[in-house]
Amino acid sequence: MSGQYPGREAIARKGWLGAHRWLILRRLSQTSFLGLFLLGPWAGIWWVKGSLASSMTLDFLPLTDPLVLLQGLVAGHWPEMTALVGAGLVIAAYLLVGGRTYCSWVCPVNPVTDAAHWLHVRLGLPKGWQPKASTRLWLLGTVVAVSAVTGTIAWELANPVTMLQRGLVFGMGAGWTLIGAVFLFDLLVARRGWCGRLCPVGAFYGLLGTRSLVRVSAARRADCDDCMDCFAVCPEMAVITPALRGKSADTPLILAGDCTNCGRCVDVCDRDVFRFTHRFDTRPAPGRDAATPSPAGRDRAA
């Protein structure tokens, strides 16, 4: 790895913009989605009404968070047809681009947790306590169960995304406490802990995106020199290993539902090992068994 600053070689070869292309696009996407919701209350331009939980765009396109719909159903509230259509559209979209694409391309809390990780690395803080990866699935189940028992959409009472959006419209107040707690948790307690280990929304979209079409592929994995930069920037580093370290007979596709399709591995790899593709991509991708590590690669890995 390039010390505490992964991607230096990529910057040297591709330039700063080339080594941050997908990160920049993600920030523009997150800002645009949030900005559309804020246009109404801030500027009186109501292109989008509602929130990320449920909205109406241009008075004809309904979008509904399917997790919110699920909570409503188990709580005993039958939704209107617009909510059903909206949830269906969202499910179809994430089956196409990847469920946890929501986490990296839409969710406004992601820049908060990314900032915490950036500062964590710059301060050289220890990895800290890491909850089991299954914790968020248990929390997801708990959210659904509590909704069923209480007859409410339980998660919306504590959802940092909802709190952040409401706070930007009405003033943060106590909402800052929750957002600050998420930031401090990732900074001081568990590296990438909130999105990677706790958030039930991420768990839900991970399940939804297990069969999604858009995928990242380690198509040139034989050229990998073990610099470890992709692992350093990946919010779900465990998803990389099967594709990158696989043999020639193994698929180079990252098929895990936990992959957020953030594109950071594409950005920081100076060997252009990774690229976006689709799950039916069967182009040959020689594995590490077909390559001999270069002396330079061994030096960088050390």
| Terminal residue distance | 9 Å
Mean pLDDT: 91
Count the helices. How many? Answer: 15
Structural class, please?
mainly alpha
Order of helices and strands: HHEEEHHHHHHHHHEHHHEH
Fold and architecture overview:
- With 302 residues, the chain is mainly alpha-helical.
- The strands form 2 sheets. Strands 1-2-3 form a 3-stranded antiparallel sheet. Strands 4-5 form a two-stranded antiparallel ribbon.
- A hairpin with a 3-residue loop joins strand 2 and strand 3.
- It is built from 15 helices and 5 strands.
Mind sketching the topology for me?
Layout: H1 8-18, H2 21-43, E1 48-50, E2 54-57, E3 61-64, H3 66-74, H4 81-97, H5 101-105, H6 110-122, H7 135-150, H8 160-170, H9 175-189, H10 193-198, H11 200-208, E4 214-217, H12 229-233, H13 240-244, H14 264-268, E5 275-278, H15 295-301
Helix pairs in contact: 3-7, 6-9, 7-11, 8-9
For this entry, give a set of tags.
three-stranded antiparallel beta sheet, 302 residues, 15 helices, two-stranded antiparallel sheet, mainly alpha, disordered C terminus
In short:
The protein is mainly alpha-helical.
